[in-house]
Input
Amino acid sequence: MIILNTMTTMRLHLAIGILVLSMLNCKSIQPELASTTNQPPNLVLILADDLGYGDVGFNGSLEIPTPNIDRIAQEGVTFTNGYVTWAACGPSRAGLITGRYQDRFGFSRNPLFAPNDPNMGLPLSEQTLAEVLGQHDYQSAILGKWHLGAHPSQRPLQRGFTDFYGFLTGGHKYFPEDWIRADEYEVTSQFDAYHTKLLRNTERVEETEYLTDALSREAVNYLEQYKDDPFFIYVAYNAPHGPLQATQKYLDRFQHIEHPKRRTYAAMVSAVDDGVGRILDQLTSLGLAENTIVVFLSDNGGPETKNYSDNGPLRGAKGSLFEGGIRVPFAMRWPKQIEAGITYESPVLSLDIFGSIIAQQKSPVQLQNPIDGVNLIPYITNQKTGLPHQELYWRKHDQDEVAIRQGNTKFANIDSELHLYDLNVDKSESNNQITRKQDLSNALQAKTNAWLEQMKEPAFLGLRSNKTYDENHPNRFERPKDNH
Ligand code: CA
Output
């Protein structure tokens, strides 16, 4: 009892000391407190949209400075061979949020905006990262582009998220004066959905800021709101996806860029970079930087001829299974576990974000389905050697295209032509060795076929079938009778 009393007294003294210090200088004491807690790490997942591999400072961009995004890389790890699982938005995001190759559950196309269709989106057989982390008392918010289903049963709050601020479809106008559709049932066509007012959870709101700035503001606010619990904040910027729209504040930074579209693109990237800076600063001032995993990546490669992005040395662009479509700017910071300034060159996948965060939980994670993502942390910290993935795979179902990367070798069937490259010496995929290495090609073809066997047929029609879908669904945007 004496010992207990002594300990109680010591604790009391400690608590009073901390309280006094907190009152004296709130900001300086909190980082120390946060680092001594035993909470699992928070996750801030920042996803850019259609950002080119070469358009961040940490991948060599000189034209578009991204000092804040670069901080993530400089204070953590740069993945030079970081991949997404599809070369365009929707399926890439479905993989990211489930930790599984999206073709395992038929998410093989960019979904259409169809608020009355419960099958147009992420099948209910799948668990999102927010659902899984929710079992471990995480709060979770998605800010920005959802793109995983617009039917009321498919929306973020039905898929495990605590909060949502953003829009449901695959893109959006950036200026509030363009948001003229009161809700999803006033939409008249696929791309008219770019004009809807934003949603906060289930309510439409009147936003007044440039969209990228609004999403950054929300991220900062949710960090404040969630700071006492473990949290997962998914900042799904739609920038720099088209339409190319930026405010004068950001355009003024790029007077040296002559081409007006490239200038606007650069301004949009700069707005994202400012937002990343605000998020990182908020983590620091709340004392949460040490134990928060911050990840930055793009959902696919840049569509160079559409938004004037630049994939650097990589061949191909958004939509392509060449590197320019699937290899993306990718960096991660977690000061508690990862040293600053690491460059990690073995191939990693967007699915590994899921694999990495669930591995940090103190009690077993209940998964409905086996995942493909792996825990990268022991590889980055040299506790494990070898490759996180023996093979990485991609499928474009409707084009009958596939690709596999095994070590540094990439084999692909693109546009009915077979390709084989050694990415270690030929990252631009310019020297096709298919005729010279027939045995290797055959072996990789066999591996790819075995993987394809595990994949499902597409679960819904995609963007390319917009017209057919319209014809078959004349009531596509009709307001349900019980909704007014
Ligand atoms: Ca995209």
Notes: Residues 1-36 have pLDDT under 50 and may be disordered. The longest strand covers residues 42-48.
